[in-house]
User: Fold these one by one.
Assistant:
Number 1:
Amino acid sequence: SSDRQGLGDWGVTTTKLPNDIEKLTQEASKRGIKFGLWIEPEMVNPRSELYKQHKDWVIRFSNREEYYFRNQMVLDLSNPKVQDFVFGIVDNLMKKYPGIAYFKWDCNSPITNIYSPYLKDKQSHLYIEHVRGLYNILERVKQKYPDVPMMLCSGGGGRSDYKALSYFTEFWPSDNTDAVERIFIQWGYGHFFPSKTLSAHVTSWGKQSVKFRTDVAMMGKLGFDIRVNEMNPQEQEYCRNAVKNFKQLEYVIGEGDVYRLMSPYKSNHAAVMYVGEDKKTSVLFAFDIHPRYGERIRSLRLEGLDPDKLYKIKEINLLPNTKSTLAGNGQTYSGEYLMKVGLTVFSSAQTVSKVIEISQNDIDTNPSIK
């Protein structure tokens, strides 16, 4: 198997995995890790047994030269037999390897060679029937495996729609994972989709610090696509602490109300705030992207708090052996003060990030209350 052959033939390549997938799931379990699998079940390579045996299952003209995108073609999901086959890919994997705990469902080619051997004289129905076929497959998967989370990916964010999300737990917004670009991407998606649906991964793209990249990714469903052995011990410790913080605050980031306090499109900075339903816990993400020299830094007014309650400010996601430079860190303020006066969270530094936990603190003897 390679990028040029084998797609569609769903068997283990023993030269690469001599001990089968089961061995991988077992080794992951020993280390306390849930094993996930990246699949692309709707596609086929021309150099595959599936293509040789079932050309009538592929969207293609039989009398024209084929055009390939990424060396692959699209299976005809309007055909019930193909629907059964694609469902069977997931079903057979789960039956054979019950240790699989997660799927990334990819789709890397648009429909080319647009002709359905199954629909024959009803070619105008192809796009609609193809999508209906996909939803039939996904419905069967969800009904049989309701507790298996799945990420929907399609050449980036090609399938970020609410109907598809009824079958998936999250989607991949873009193959562009540069942290600065992701601030803009996530800002835009956030107008339509809750943050818990946005897969946001820390990768090796960009020259920003691991902290900056992680803080950006923490605004969505945090994940890591990075070589851990290439990070230094300080970065590894930072990431472990950040994951711990994310797990503690995920309910706020994923389920809370979102306040867009500073747009990256209108400023050299960006700020997004997530407020829990009960307003007791909030998380503020603040980013210095590319400040201008000598730029006047203004306070940022918060939103969504109870003006009559007291809130303690705490910067989290700090690098090991470093102290917060946030003015007001550890102090307590009224919700009214934070929303009318605000906090100085920005700086004149390039690509610097702050993550601030804001916790309701009704009983506090701290003399710094404002």
Note: The domain at 20-256 is CATH 3.20.20.70 (TIM Barrel).
Number 2:
Amino acid sequence: MTFVGKILVILIMALSLIFLGISTVVFTTSQNWLVAANAQKKAAGELKTKLDDANAKVAAAEKDLEAEKVKYEALTKQQDNQIKALEAENARQQQEITRAGNEVAGAEATAKTALAEAEARRNEAIQLREKRAAVEDQANKFKLKQAELFDRIRELERIMETANKNNADLKDRVARYSTLLRQNGLSEDITRVKGTEAAPPVVGKIKQVDPANRNLVISIGSDDGLSVGNELYLFRQDPRPEYLGKMSVTIVDPDQAVGRVIGGTYQGKKLREGDIVSSTINPRG
């Protein structure tokens, strides 16, 4: 039974006693006083018994109330302790959340920085690869050019060796021709020596040209009917036929001759090996 229920029981018992007293007064006015007195005693005894029982119940209720109060205080204290513990745990968790949030923010900032650095390094690596590819391409071109230059050097060395041999041979021939001319009472000045006849119908090719584009060696000589002073036309057939100029024969050998360009080539064009020399204006190669 709860505390409130016990209070209600006591109130009911008190009201019962009051109503009993009223009814006793009413009864005594109408019956024998002795009988009424005995009845009242008996009723009073019963009431006293009930009152004692009620007091006992009230004492028990008070005792229970005190016990409940102790239990309530203990429970309240326990709950307060739990609330404090929960509040402390909540504060700790909030601190953990704040710390974790700060760590996450720091990690995000670090990650962004790392990503930016990685992107910069990737772009730098791409640029370095592109530069390396360009350098390697340029190096390969240089190697090819170097190989071409080495080939050209070897070719020029061979040409120089041949030219030196031809020069030595030509000097020897000039010396012999000069001796022969002096012995025959002729001038040694080659420019004064003219061919007595026009060049025969011949067609040949240029074998060598000096860097000045003035003197050249051709593939036809005295065996083909050439003589010093003959004039020949210079042509080129590839990629299209074109006139280059004229030359005068200055030295003649059986299988080749040396000549000099008259005046200069047409439009200053460079002569080259393989160009046509002919005694006629319409050569047939």
Note: The mean pLDDT is 82.
Number 3:
Amino acid sequence: MVRTAHHNGLKVQSFGHFAFNKRYELWNRDIDRLAPERLLEQMSVKTGVTLREAKKTTLSLFEGRLFESTSLSGQLRWITPLKLYHRTHTGFGMQYCPLCLAESTDAYYRIAWRVAFYTFCPKHLILMEDRCRHCGMAVAFHRIELGKYHQLDAPDLAVCWKCGVSLTDFTPIPVNIWHQNVHRRWKWKLAVLDRGFVNSGQVKTQRLNLLHQLCRIIASHSLAPDLQQYLCDKTNMPYQHISDVKIAFEQRSLSERHYILELAWWLIEKYPRKINEAIKYKKLRPHYLYKDMPSLRFK
């Protein structure tokens, strides 16, 4: 919607007033998650895009795939939260690939970048970013033009809304591919997200749910206190401190999520052999792992 406003020579706020009700506030919510049906219908009519395609630009694309259904509040499985406060993002839920932004003449943010296991770019093989490297603020591209009353040209969405520094002008961090099979499967899942599940076959939702449960358990200091060290010994991965703060996996820092996911993807490979081995050596408790997933327990 931001790019539609700019392509029509309007600021985002003005576009909202012209195209929709002036009293209707759009940016006091996570619009990826809570885009009103009326808004999507209006965008569909005015842009010529079908309503079905318009909905694919929102988190509803992942409904029934990554999480069961969209709710008005609460944590959605695999979706990074924005944590809005007075239209400002206090959470770091809007991730981005600096090279993807830099190579585009019309920079834009992909809905797939809101997924918590999208911690590296499968195209450029670099770690994602979730904040401005210069000032540390979260990405909020809808705020880029605020206060710039005399700016007539459409702003570049690849700059920080707070300090104005480019979000792409730095050396990115290459992803460490320490296990070919693990990263091949991970990269394939990210490519599926990038193409919006087109020509991707049936999504193994339960397997992704199991991966999510493993991430929660690895990060826990109480559910499986010896599991992380066990996995590091098995994989030769360095042992890194994982914050013991009790938050959802999706709310953890990008670097922490990436590290946990590396261990979880390795453990789920060749399922269920590695998991059964961890259970055998009492590093993993099956009643915690298969909670709410009884159909996977004996496979």
Note: Residues 204-296 form one domain.
Number 4:
Amino acid sequence: MPTQTFFNLPKDKQERIIQGAMKEFSQLPFSEVSIAKIIQHADISRGSFYQYFEHKMDLYCYLIRRFKRNYHELMVAKFREHAGDFYAGYLAFSEYYIRAILESPKFGFFEQLYLNMNYQLNKQSIDILFENDKQEKLVDVVSVADLVVDQTEVEDVFEFLHKLLNQTIMEGFWQEWSIEQTNAQFKRQLDWLFDGLKNHSPQDKERE
């Protein structure tokens, strides 16, 4: 997170710094983004930059957080719409999430994020999505009655699913898939997870 010094700045100066950072992170992979270029766009000194942010990753995570801060509430809403059904709720969330990313006016930023995503960036993205303890907890709105996990494992399952979702979006960028193709690929993987890979016999289906 930025320091309090950053938040004490006039709003127009905060926005100038953010826009300077967005310009660089929308054009280059994280590893190639130069702090020198960011401060040049923002018209601040290097010393000032380090008064506002601990390092480049600190700034980058803040940018991600600005876009993702409402997604936790969205997930809660989707699960409520589907009466806590795990599959239906997460599928509805994923469809909205994928469309929001691929239709975002900040498409270049997300393109660089996903095309150059590694373990650290994936984990940061997931941590940001679930970081606000003051928000309503997902475990309180999800039904696990029909699942083989209990309430204590729900957060681990969400982390796994969001890694899978990020991986699918990343593949979508690489393959230049449409929104519909990306949604279809994630749904296929979600179906594998929830239905399993077993070829059920007619007898099995009758017993079910």
Note: The chain has a mean pLDDT of 86.
